[in-house]
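Lab notebook, entry 307. We have the chain sequence and a SMILES string for copper (II) ion, and the next step in the workflow is to get a structural model of the bound complex before anyone spends time on docking refinements. Request logged below.

Task: model protein plus copper (II) ion, output structure tokens.
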Amino acid sequence: MNTRTRVTAIPALLAAGAFASLPGVLRGAAAQEATPEAGASLLSEFGFPEITITIENGEVTVPAEVQAGRVLIAYENIGDESSHPILMQPPAGVSADQMMADLGPEAMEPPEWFLDATFPGFVGETLPGETSYAVVDLLPGTHLVLDNAPFPFEVVPSDATPAAEQVPEADGVVRLFEMGFEFSEPLEPGRQVWEITNSGDLPHELLLIRSSAPVTPEQIIELFMSEDENATPVGGGPSLADIEPVGGLGWLSPGATAWTEVDLEPGTYAAVCFVFDPETGMPHLMLGMVDTFTVGNGGTPAATPAG
Ligand SMILES: [Cu+2]
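Result returned:
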């Protein structure tokens, strides 16, 4: 598949209004290698109840009802547009009707209550043809998957006997905070499970980007500011065409932990967060929530900042 796909680093909702000046950001590469079968998920080995959510060009199909608890989410992108979804539980007091109106395609900016929602974590950016996986903890109540529009579903109290929740064994550990990331070392190539915890006071996310050239955090910010796919940052570095999203974890509330599955080849990566700052409307990326790292010994070393 050679279709170049504009990667929606933030849902259209958040790209509107205060975000209109942001570029279309990442343009993803074509779909990656063959999608692994659902059973090939490393996270499926832990035996959590599994729910499948599909997206086809903005249309999300969610289960009618999900039981509360720790669940494995498989997110299948069967369309030809990339998806950067958010999973959220709106705050108490926001009715279903209001929620749908406030987050619909006509909404020009996030409603005031948006950052008061609960974000259990979700899959990261998912390219066409890919299936992403995440293990998250769901509490009873109305939830919604937000892509270009909201798609609600109910989480109901579990009738299973609550057992001590099993913790997936993780190959990598990532901590999110204001404004940055902390990765366990070393990060090895290959398919693996990452445990991600938000130890900050704000929601955060982990959008992983692979770069085919050495890159600095400053250059990543410059790239996201650029409208020109072929522009390269001052002092060199990759263009937007040289970077591609490779998963991660969607919005995660303060104090929450979730697990995602990544498949990393040796190389250079960046981590960025697009959660917005309510004061300025700026994504955390612009406030410095960007980091670069390498995976494996064969990785291209991260560039040193241009002096
Ligand atoms: Cu953040």
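Notes for the group: The pocket of copper (II) ion is lined by residues 204, 273, 275, 284, 289 (CB under 6 Å). Worth checking against the assay data. Confidence is low (pLDDT under 50) at residues 1-39.
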